Amino acid sequence: MTEPYPGHGQGAAPHTLTHRGFKISTQKLPILKAGPIEEMTEKLGIAPPEMIFGDNHTSIEHVSSGWQIYFNAFDALDRVDKTGKSMLQVAHSGEWKKSREHHHEGIKEIVKPFDWSYSTDYKGTTTDDIKSFSPSSKPIPIELLKLPDPIKFFDEVMLYEDELADNGIAMLSCKIRAMPDRLLLLCRFFMRLDNVVFRVRDTRVFVEFATGEVIREYTAQEEQYAVIKDKLAVAREDIPALMRDANRLSELMPVVEKSLERLELG
Predict the structure, then answer these.
(1) CA–CA separation, 4 vs 43, rounded Å?
(2) What is the C-alpha R_g of the chain?
(3) What is the structure's pLDDT at 99?
(4) In the Cβ-directed half-sphere of 5, how many Cα atoms lie within 13 Å?
(5) How far apart are CA 47 and CA 185, in angstroms?
(6) Are residues 88 and 213 in contact, defined by beta-carbon separation less than 8 angstroms?
(7) What angle do CA 74, 77, 78 make, to 5 degrees?
(8) More confident site: 70 or 99
(9) pLDDT tens, 186-196?
(10) What are the CA-CA distances from residue 61 to residues 65, 169, 214, 250 (Å)?
(11) CB 15: neighbour CB atoms within 10 A?
Protein backbone atom coordinates (compact mmCIF):
# COMPACT_ATOMS: atom_id res chain seq x y z
CA MET A 1 0.00 0.00 0.00
CA THR A 2 1.18 3.48 -0.81
CA GLU A 3 1.89 5.45 2.32
CA PRO A 4 -0.99 7.87 2.93
CA TYR A 5 -0.20 11.56 2.77
CA PRO A 6 1.15 12.59 6.19
CA GLY A 7 -1.47 14.35 8.26
CA HIS A 8 -1.07 17.84 9.64
CA GLY A 9 -4.38 18.20 11.40
CA GLN A 10 -5.09 18.14 15.08
CA GLY A 11 -8.57 17.69 16.43
CA ALA A 12 -11.21 15.06 16.89
CA ALA A 13 -10.13 11.44 16.94
CA PRO A 14 -11.19 9.25 14.01
CA HIS A 15 -14.72 7.85 14.06
CA THR A 16 -14.30 4.07 14.26
CA LEU A 17 -16.22 0.82 14.52
CA THR A 18 -14.74 -2.64 14.91
CA HIS A 19 -17.31 -5.24 13.94
CA ARG A 20 -17.08 -8.91 12.95
CA GLY A 21 -13.39 -8.81 12.12
CA PHE A 22 -13.38 -5.47 10.28
CA LYS A 23 -12.38 -2.02 11.48
CA ILE A 24 -14.10 0.94 9.82
CA SER A 25 -12.58 4.39 10.28
CA THR A 26 -13.33 7.91 9.11
CA GLN A 27 -11.55 11.19 9.83
CA LYS A 28 -13.03 14.66 9.27
CA LEU A 29 -10.86 17.73 9.86
CA PRO A 30 -10.78 21.31 8.47
CA ILE A 31 -9.29 22.19 5.08
CA LEU A 32 -5.51 22.27 4.85
CA LYS A 33 -3.66 25.50 5.59
CA ALA A 34 -1.06 27.16 3.38
CA GLY A 35 1.99 25.20 4.57
CA PRO A 36 0.57 21.70 4.06
CA ILE A 37 -0.99 22.81 0.76
CA GLU A 38 2.39 23.95 -0.54
CA GLU A 39 3.95 20.66 0.54
CA MET A 40 1.21 18.68 -1.17
CA THR A 41 1.52 20.80 -4.32
CA GLU A 42 5.23 20.03 -4.55
CA LYS A 43 4.63 16.30 -4.07
CA LEU A 44 1.75 16.13 -6.56
CA GLY A 45 3.23 18.43 -9.20
CA ILE A 46 -0.11 20.13 -9.82
CA ALA A 47 -1.95 23.08 -8.26
CA PRO A 48 -4.46 21.95 -5.62
CA PRO A 49 -8.25 22.37 -5.59
CA GLU A 50 -9.72 25.37 -3.76
CA MET A 51 -10.80 23.25 -0.80
CA ILE A 52 -8.64 20.27 0.02
CA PHE A 53 -9.27 18.14 3.08
CA GLY A 54 -5.86 16.49 3.15
CA ASP A 55 -6.23 15.02 6.62
CA ASN A 56 -9.59 13.37 5.92
CA HIS A 57 -9.90 9.69 5.13
CA THR A 58 -12.21 6.69 5.02
CA SER A 59 -10.83 3.20 5.52
CA ILE A 60 -11.88 -0.44 5.86
CA GLU A 61 -9.41 -2.83 7.50
CA HIS A 62 -9.56 -6.60 7.89
CA VAL A 63 -8.09 -6.87 11.38
CA SER A 64 -6.60 -10.38 11.34
CA SER A 65 -4.85 -10.13 7.96
CA GLY A 66 -4.04 -6.40 7.98
CA TRP A 67 -5.61 -5.92 4.54
CA GLN A 68 -6.94 -2.40 4.06
CA ILE A 69 -8.59 -0.15 1.50
CA TYR A 70 -8.07 3.54 2.24
CA PHE A 71 -9.50 6.65 0.56
CA ASN A 72 -7.71 10.01 0.86
CA ALA A 73 -7.33 13.23 -1.11
CA PHE A 74 -3.63 13.00 -1.93
CA ASP A 75 -3.81 9.59 -3.63
CA ALA A 76 -6.99 10.62 -5.46
CA LEU A 77 -5.35 13.78 -6.83
CA ASP A 78 -2.27 11.77 -7.79
CA ARG A 79 -4.55 9.98 -10.30
CA VAL A 80 -5.47 13.27 -12.04
CA ASP A 81 -3.94 13.50 -15.51
CA LYS A 82 -0.74 15.55 -15.27
CA THR A 83 0.19 15.44 -18.97
CA GLY A 84 -2.47 17.87 -20.17
CA LYS A 85 -3.86 15.25 -22.61
CA SER A 86 -7.17 15.08 -20.73
CA MET A 87 -7.38 18.82 -20.09
CA LEU A 88 -10.69 20.36 -21.12
CA GLN A 89 -9.89 22.72 -23.97
CA VAL A 90 -12.34 25.51 -23.25
CA ALA A 91 -12.11 29.22 -22.59
CA HIS A 92 -12.69 28.69 -18.88
CA SER A 93 -9.17 27.31 -18.40
CA GLY A 94 -7.73 30.83 -18.49
CA GLU A 95 -10.18 31.99 -15.84
CA TRP A 96 -9.28 28.98 -13.72
CA LYS A 97 -5.56 29.84 -13.85
CA LYS A 98 -6.24 33.44 -12.78
CA SER A 99 -8.43 32.25 -9.89
CA ARG A 100 -5.66 29.93 -8.71
CA GLU A 101 -3.15 32.77 -8.60
CA HIS A 102 -5.55 34.75 -6.43
CA HIS A 103 -6.83 31.95 -4.20
CA HIS A 104 -3.41 30.57 -3.28
CA GLU A 105 -1.55 33.85 -3.25
CA GLY A 106 1.88 33.45 -1.72
CA ILE A 107 2.09 29.72 -2.39
CA LYS A 108 4.73 28.66 -4.88
CA GLU A 109 2.90 26.63 -7.50
CA ILE A 110 4.08 24.36 -10.25
CA VAL A 111 2.39 25.71 -13.38
CA LYS A 112 2.12 23.16 -16.16
CA PRO A 113 -0.73 21.64 -18.17
CA PHE A 114 -2.95 19.19 -16.30
CA ASP A 115 -6.62 18.26 -16.06
CA TRP A 116 -7.86 21.30 -14.17
CA SER A 117 -11.28 19.68 -13.63
CA TYR A 118 -9.53 17.32 -11.14
CA SER A 119 -11.22 14.31 -12.74
CA THR A 120 -9.91 11.14 -11.09
CA ASP A 121 -10.46 7.43 -11.58
CA TYR A 122 -9.33 6.75 -8.00
CA LYS A 123 -10.54 3.39 -6.68
CA GLY A 124 -8.89 3.53 -3.27
CA THR A 125 -5.43 2.74 -1.93
CA THR A 126 -5.00 -0.94 -1.08
CA THR A 127 -2.54 -3.27 0.63
CA ASP A 128 -1.82 -5.35 -2.46
CA ASP A 129 1.09 -7.09 -0.76
CA ILE A 130 -1.42 -8.83 1.53
CA LYS A 131 -4.25 -9.52 -0.90
CA SER A 132 -5.12 -8.01 -4.26
CA PHE A 133 -8.33 -7.71 -6.25
CA SER A 134 -8.96 -9.93 -9.28
CA PRO A 135 -11.31 -9.20 -12.18
CA SER A 136 -14.78 -10.59 -11.61
CA SER A 137 -18.24 -10.72 -13.13
CA LYS A 138 -20.05 -10.95 -9.79
CA PRO A 139 -22.03 -7.75 -9.10
CA ILE A 140 -22.69 -6.11 -5.75
CA PRO A 141 -25.85 -7.77 -4.33
CA ILE A 142 -28.12 -4.72 -4.34
CA GLU A 143 -31.10 -6.66 -2.95
CA LEU A 144 -29.20 -7.43 0.27
CA LEU A 145 -28.46 -3.75 0.69
CA LYS A 146 -32.17 -2.93 0.41
CA LEU A 147 -33.03 -5.00 3.49
CA PRO A 148 -34.31 -2.92 6.44
CA ASP A 149 -31.25 -3.68 8.56
CA PRO A 150 -30.23 -1.34 11.38
CA ILE A 151 -27.34 1.02 10.63
CA LYS A 152 -24.40 0.42 12.96
CA PHE A 153 -22.11 3.03 11.38
CA PHE A 154 -22.64 5.88 8.93
CA ASP A 155 -20.45 8.77 7.84
CA GLU A 156 -19.80 11.06 4.88
CA VAL A 157 -16.34 12.52 4.30
CA MET A 158 -15.35 15.28 1.88
CA LEU A 159 -11.91 14.92 0.28
CA TYR A 160 -11.75 17.92 -2.07
CA GLU A 161 -13.89 20.49 -3.86
CA ASP A 162 -13.33 23.19 -6.48
CA GLU A 163 -15.77 25.59 -8.17
CA LEU A 164 -13.74 25.68 -11.41
CA ALA A 165 -13.43 29.48 -11.40
CA ASP A 166 -17.18 29.84 -10.77
CA ASN A 167 -17.91 27.79 -13.88
CA GLY A 168 -19.18 24.65 -12.16
CA ILE A 169 -18.13 22.20 -9.49
CA ALA A 170 -15.70 19.33 -9.02
CA MET A 171 -15.83 17.33 -5.81
CA LEU A 172 -14.74 14.01 -4.37
CA SER A 173 -16.36 12.51 -1.29
CA CYS A 174 -16.86 9.19 0.48
CA LYS A 175 -19.98 7.81 2.10
CA ILE A 176 -20.00 4.62 4.16
CA ARG A 177 -22.68 2.66 5.99
CA ALA A 178 -22.33 -0.58 7.91
CA MET A 179 -25.16 -2.93 8.84
CA PRO A 180 -24.92 -6.03 11.08
CA ASP A 181 -23.98 -8.37 8.19
CA ARG A 182 -22.37 -6.17 5.53
CA LEU A 183 -21.18 -2.71 4.54
CA LEU A 184 -21.12 -0.46 1.50
CA LEU A 185 -18.71 2.38 0.76
CA LEU A 186 -19.24 4.85 -2.08
CA CYS A 187 -16.43 7.14 -3.22
CA ARG A 188 -17.89 9.58 -5.77
CA PHE A 189 -16.26 12.11 -8.05
CA PHE A 190 -18.82 14.57 -9.43
CA MET A 191 -18.02 17.29 -11.93
CA ARG A 192 -20.18 19.87 -13.70
CA LEU A 193 -18.53 22.29 -16.10
CA ASP A 194 -21.23 24.75 -17.09
CA ASN A 195 -22.23 24.60 -20.77
CA VAL A 196 -19.68 21.82 -21.39
CA VAL A 197 -20.01 18.47 -19.60
CA PHE A 198 -21.15 16.44 -16.58
CA ARG A 199 -19.14 13.55 -15.08
CA VAL A 200 -19.82 11.03 -12.32
CA ARG A 201 -17.21 8.44 -11.36
CA ASP A 202 -18.23 6.02 -8.63
CA THR A 203 -16.20 3.44 -6.72
CA ARG A 204 -18.33 1.14 -4.57
CA VAL A 205 -16.82 -1.29 -2.08
CA PHE A 206 -19.07 -4.01 -0.68
CA VAL A 207 -18.05 -6.27 2.22
CA GLU A 208 -19.92 -9.36 3.40
CA PHE A 209 -18.69 -9.88 6.98
CA ALA A 210 -19.51 -13.59 7.32
CA THR A 211 -17.46 -14.69 4.30
CA GLY A 212 -14.88 -11.91 4.09
CA GLU A 213 -15.87 -11.31 0.48
CA VAL A 214 -15.04 -7.83 -0.89
CA ILE A 215 -16.45 -6.61 -4.20
CA ARG A 216 -15.23 -3.39 -5.81
CA GLU A 217 -17.23 -1.80 -8.61
CA TYR A 218 -16.07 1.21 -10.63
CA THR A 219 -18.50 3.07 -12.90
CA ALA A 220 -17.80 6.17 -14.99
CA GLN A 221 -20.62 8.21 -16.53
CA GLU A 222 -20.44 11.27 -18.76
CA GLU A 223 -22.80 13.44 -20.80
CA GLN A 224 -22.77 16.79 -22.54
CA TYR A 225 -24.20 19.67 -20.52
CA ALA A 226 -26.77 20.62 -23.16
CA VAL A 227 -28.14 17.07 -23.35
CA ILE A 228 -28.71 16.90 -19.58
CA LYS A 229 -30.27 20.36 -19.52
CA ASP A 230 -32.71 19.36 -22.26
CA LYS A 231 -33.67 16.16 -20.43
CA LEU A 232 -34.38 18.11 -17.24
CA ALA A 233 -36.41 20.68 -19.16
CA VAL A 234 -38.59 18.00 -20.77
CA ALA A 235 -39.29 16.55 -17.32
CA ARG A 236 -40.22 20.06 -16.11
CA GLU A 237 -37.82 19.77 -13.20
CA ASP A 238 -36.17 22.58 -11.26
CA ILE A 239 -32.97 22.77 -13.29
CA PRO A 240 -30.89 25.06 -10.99
CA ALA A 241 -31.74 22.93 -7.95
CA LEU A 242 -30.57 19.76 -9.67
CA MET A 243 -27.24 21.03 -10.95
CA ARG A 244 -25.48 19.71 -7.83
CA ASP A 245 -27.64 16.60 -7.40
CA ALA A 246 -25.29 13.85 -8.56
CA ASN A 247 -27.81 11.12 -7.72
CA ARG A 248 -30.48 12.56 -10.00
CA LEU A 249 -28.04 13.57 -12.74
CA SER A 250 -26.44 10.11 -12.84
CA GLU A 251 -29.82 8.67 -13.84
CA LEU A 252 -29.58 10.72 -17.04
CA MET A 253 -26.00 9.83 -18.01
CA PRO A 254 -24.74 6.84 -20.03
CA VAL A 255 -22.06 4.57 -18.57
CA VAL A 256 -18.77 5.00 -20.42
CA GLU A 257 -16.64 2.64 -18.32
CA LYS A 258 -17.31 -0.12 -15.79
CA SER A 259 -15.23 -2.73 -13.98
CA LEU A 260 -15.83 -5.36 -11.30
CA GLU A 261 -13.24 -6.92 -8.99
CA ARG A 262 -13.39 -9.13 -5.92
CA LEU A 263 -11.26 -10.81 -3.27
CA GLU A 264 -11.87 -13.03 -0.26
CA LEU A 265 -10.29 -12.51 3.13
CA GLY A 266 -9.91 -15.59 5.29
Answers:
(1) 12
(2) 19
(3) 55
(4) 26
(5) 28
(6) no
(7) 85
(8) 70
(9) 999 999 999 88
(10) 9, 31, 11, 30
(11) 16
